[in-house]
Amino acid sequence: MLSSHILLIHFFKPHSFSSNFATMTDLPKAMGLLRTVFKNHAGKDGDPKSLNKKELSELLRAEFPEAGSTSKNELDKFFKSLDNDGDGVVSFEEFVTFAAALTVICHGE
Ligand SMILES: [Ca+2]
Asked: What are its GO cellular component terms (predicted)?
């Protein structure tokens, strides 16, 4: 574990976050939603701790229906851009990095 992770755990005490969605404040709620979206799709086919290409495609269709369909070539390129370590699957860390980058892009518009 990186020292920055230890600092974050010490400062935020994630184990103390409420598990009651109704009483959560906005940012913990958003963090929980990211975990839920990932888990709902990662668990469909194989390892529940990662997204394969099919699961990522289903996640995109479910979460961004207005984006329309993507070609196999576009999906291949997108998947490769998310799979930072090149292990052939998208981990939660890689997924959250994508979500954060997309949030920054949307915030800038
Ligand atoms: Ca990966």
From this structure: cytoplasm
- Ligand 1 geometric centre to CA of 42 (Å): 13
Q: CA-CA distance, 82 to 3, in Å (whole number)?
A: 25
Class of domain 22-107: mainly alpha
How many angstroms does the Cα of residue 12 sit away from the middle of ligand 1? 27
Look at the pTM and tell me if it is higher than 0.90: no
pLDDT digits (tens, 9 = 90+) for 29-81: 999 999 999 999 998 888 999 999 999 999 999 999 888 788 899 999 999 99
Query: SS3 for 43?
Result: coil
> Do 41 and 55 contact (CB within 8 A), yes or no?
yes
